[in-house]
Structures are given as C-alpha cells and as structure tokens.
Amino acid sequence: MSHHKLEVNDLHYSYPDEHKAVKGMSFCIYHGESVGVIGANGAGKSTLLMLLMGVIFPSQGEVCVADVRVTKKTLPMIRQRLGMVFQDPDDQLFMTTVYDDVAFGPRNYKLDEEEVEKRVLQALEMVGILHLKDRAPFKLSGGEKRAAAIASVLSMQPDILVMDEPTAALDPKARRRIMELLHSFKHTKIVTSHDLDMIYEICDRTIVIKNGEIAADGLTSEILVNSKLMDECGLEVPLALQNCPVCGSEKTKI
Amino acid sequence: MSKIMNALYNMRILDDLARKETIIHKIHPLVKLLTTVSYLTVVVSFGKYDIGGLLPFLLYPSIVFGLAEIPVKPIFMRLLLVSPLIIGIGILNPFIDQQIFMLGRMEISRGWVTFLSLFIRSGLTVTAALLLIATTGMDRIGGALRMLKIPRIFVLQLLLTYRYISVLMEEVARTLRAYSLRAPQQKGVHRSAWGSLAGQLILRTFDRGQRIYEAMCLRGFTGEYNTGRFKEIRVGDLAYLAGWVSFFAVARIYNIPMLLGSLITGVIR
C-alpha cells in the first residue's frame, strides 16, 4: 500500500441542474508524480478537484487515496493526506495573522502548541516568508499571499498537494518564484492551470480534460506539443514551444 | 465608494492595533473581557438623570487609551458612526420630558439631561467595547468567551460574522466601482439597480462564504475555532481585574464628583 497513491475509478458527477460535469473519468497517480490537469473553461477541472478533496461526492464511481475510499467517514484522514491550495488565496487566508492562518490546520488536528509552532515555522521557512509571520494576510502582495496559502497547507504535512491555478494573477517574477517553490517540493503534486508553460516545466505527466471526459493522459512532453489535440480541447501549445514570434521560424529542438 | 474602501481599511485598523505589545495588550484576554463587561454593566446601571456620577468612568477609557497607546481618532470615528442611532433614540426625550430643571440660573428641560446622559453612556460603553477589540483582537476575545463556556456556535457566529463583514464590504466596493465606472454622471446608485445589485451581492457573498468554508473544512475544521493556547492568568492580571472592579463599585456607590465638590467647598468655607 502506498500512502501517496490516488486512484480515480469511473467517476461521474452531475450538478443539481442536471449538468453532467464529470463523465466517467479514471486514472491513477503514484507516489512522487507531478501531474498537470488541463482543459478549457468549464471542462470539469474544478469539479474534479472538488471530487478528489471530498467537498462533493460522485454520483457514480469512486476516489481512493492510499487505497481508502473517499467517503464522509474517511474525510478527516483523507484531508490530512491531501492538501489543497485554492485559486484565490483570499478564500484560504481567513485568520488575522499569517501565523494563525498557517496554524489553523494543525490546531484543528489537536496538536500541542509546540508542535504547531514547529510546523508553522517550518512551513513558512519552506516557502520563504518566515519574516511575514506576524503580518495580516490582507496586507501581503499577491505572490506573498500565494506563498502563505501554500504554507497553510504544508503545515498539515500532506502527502499529496492539490493546486488550483497556482500561478494565476501573479507578476512574472512572483510566478517564477512559485514555480521554483513547487519544483522543490518532493510531494506528489496535482496542478490544474491554464498556464501551460508552467505545466510544461513543473509536471511530468498531463491529463487533458474535455467536456467532463479525459481526452488524453500521458507524458507532458508528448501531450503539450500535440497541436491537434490541444486545438481540439480548446487549448494551444505552450508559448515557449511555439514558433518564434518575430521571424516565425520553427522550433527545431524541444 | 472611496468611503466604503476607507471604512474597510479603518475596520482593519482594530486588528492591527490588537497586535501591539503594550502592557494592556499583554493582559489575559479573559481578564480584559470581564473588566469590560463589568464596566458596561455599571455604566448602564446609572439612572437617566445621573450625569455627575458617570464622570469618574471617563478614567477607565482614558487610562486604557494611554497605556495601550491606542490612537483616539479611529475610535472616535467609530463612535461617530453609532451616534446617529443614539440621536435617533434620544432626540424625542427633550420634547416628551419637559419638566424644568435648574442648572445654576439656567432653566433646561429634564429631557435634555436624559438625552445627554444617554449620549455619555453610549459613548462610554461603545468606547470600552472598541478598546477591548483594539487591545485584544477578535480571535482572542472568541477564545475568552469559550473559556467562559459560551456555546461554541455563538462564538463561531460572532467570529465568522466579524470576518465576513470585510468579505462583504470588499464585494460591495468592487461592485460599486464597476457600477460607477459605467455610470460616471450619477451620484450613488440609481434605484432601478438597487434590487439586482443587492441580489448580486448576496449571491457573491454566499459563494465566497461557501469557498471559505470549504477551505476551512479541508484543513480539518469541525466547528471549533482554535485560536491557540492562552497563557496562564497571572497575579498581575487578577490585580488588574480586582483594581478596576473595585473602582467601578466605589464610583457606583459614591458620587465621587459630588464628594470632591463638597470637600472643596467645605475647605473654602
């Protein structure tokens, strides 16, 4: 049994308005893998993440984390293993200081205050914002907020990190810092994004979603260069892999 | 719109102030909460014609302001926010209670006295409550309430409402900004848009609230808002509480300004 394995079997989900957001997805993510989940707007990425985290439950099929099925009963255990970073860090930072926010998860698991402090400082150190620990989250810059949101998840010491658009709305330097940070993590990672250049750099494997179904699942280096597939799924080849914008000459080496 | 943004900024000043490390800030939250509650109870217990007796109670906020290094202006501005409400409640007093009251040679109606008394009492109580927040922080007040065994559902409601206010105000500011940019010649929001604007806000706030709740649940939230461990209550904390409570009791039982006055006039004679 691997603590880091995540398995999705024939997953289906319909919203109350009968809209079928997920139609029969199956995949398995193993220890240490870094997986990008991409797709056009409304393809079902966010719904998939919510299903993985047990925020909503599938109408058919199952999600298993470390061979344990995600149900209401197993949620506390599952949520310790899976940490999710939200797209909007403001949704995730609701306490008055960065420290309290990062401590929120460990405190909920009734750890003693010394252990909480150790974890908080370690998490803040990992994302490089230890100096901001006493600041109010609303006063941080976009990049700092994102780092704080990541720290708030790291302090729970999850095996698997799930991230929704980790580089959205960041300036280029902040984006680069977050990417380096993600690169340095040894966790199993699941990243959804429209930033395909980031996916190309961070993820070895990519799952492409189209209309609630898996359109492709394989090596990032093969999928993202497939312009036909990308086009069919409402995406395009990452900018870094496209032809030169000045002279139009083709990339010869990837 | 800028007023709303200012209000938002100002609201968070209390959180900032609560992070100072003065002698008052270091006092145990439970002690500060109990001191404030006893202060409020005593101030409210004064009769409606009793203005003189209230004057010694200015001492408590003055000392807290000084020792906690809290700027007066932001607290005063918040007092102004409540003042229309107080005026609304008390403005009819001078017309209803028209008995004559002599102040030196001046005749004034007793209604004005009750109005003034109401105004002073509301000023003192609201200031004391704001000072409690500005020297303790809402999270720690919540923790103190839990120590008093207040049911967690009420404490949670209080804490989350406090956080949600800022969420709602951010949404309001954003919506109004979008509105005003497309309606440059209007002052305020036209009444035809009130309904849809308010509806939009409610939906967006629900949405945001839902996401925040999900974020909390994903980090193991089960209904208890843990704010960390409190330090033990020390002797100094108890002395602070005992000192203030006895002062409040003395000031309630004896009319200190009158005693002082008669003492001074006695000496002069």
> Span from first to last CA of chain B?
62 Å
What do the pLDDT scores of chain A average to? 89
- Estimate the mean pLDDT confidence of chain B: 84
Number of helices of chain A: 10
CATH architecture heading of the domain at 6-86 and 159-241 in chain A: 3-Layer(aba) Sandwich
- Gross morphology of chain B is flat
Helical residues, percent of chain B: over 70%
Q: Which value, in Å, is the CA radius of gyration of chain A?
A: 19 Å
Widest sheet: strand ordering of chain A: 6-7-8-3-9-10
Q: What percent of residues of chain A adopt helix (DSSP H or I)?
A: 25-40%
Task: Note the total helix count of chain B.
Answer: 11
Q: Fill in the CATH topology of the domain at 6-86 and 159-241 in chain A.
A: Rossmann fold
CATH class of the domain at 6-86 and 159-241 in chain A: Alpha Beta
What order do the helices and strands come in, and which of them pair?
The complex is a heterodimer of chains A (254) and B (269).
Chain A: E1 6-14, E2 20-29, E3 34-39, H1 45-53, E4 60-65, E5 68-69, H2 75-81, E6 82-85, H3 89-92, H4 98-108, H5 113-126, H6 142-154, E7 160-164, H7 172-184, E8 188-192, H8 196-202, E9 205-210, E10 213-219, H9 220-223, H10 227-232
Parallel strand pairs in A: 3-8, 3-9, 6-7, 7-8
Antiparallel strand pairs in A: 1-2, 1-4, 4-5, 9-10
Helix pairs in contact in A: 4-5, 4-6, 5-6, 6-7
Chain B: H1 2-17, H2 29-44, H3 59-67, H4 72-90, H5 93-96, E1 100-103, E2 106-109, H6 110-136, H7 138-147, H8 152-182, H9 191-218, H10 235-253, H11 256-268
Antiparallel strand pairs in B: 1-2
Helix pairs in contact in B: 1-6, 1-8, 2-6, 2-10, 3-6, 4-6, 7-8, 8-9
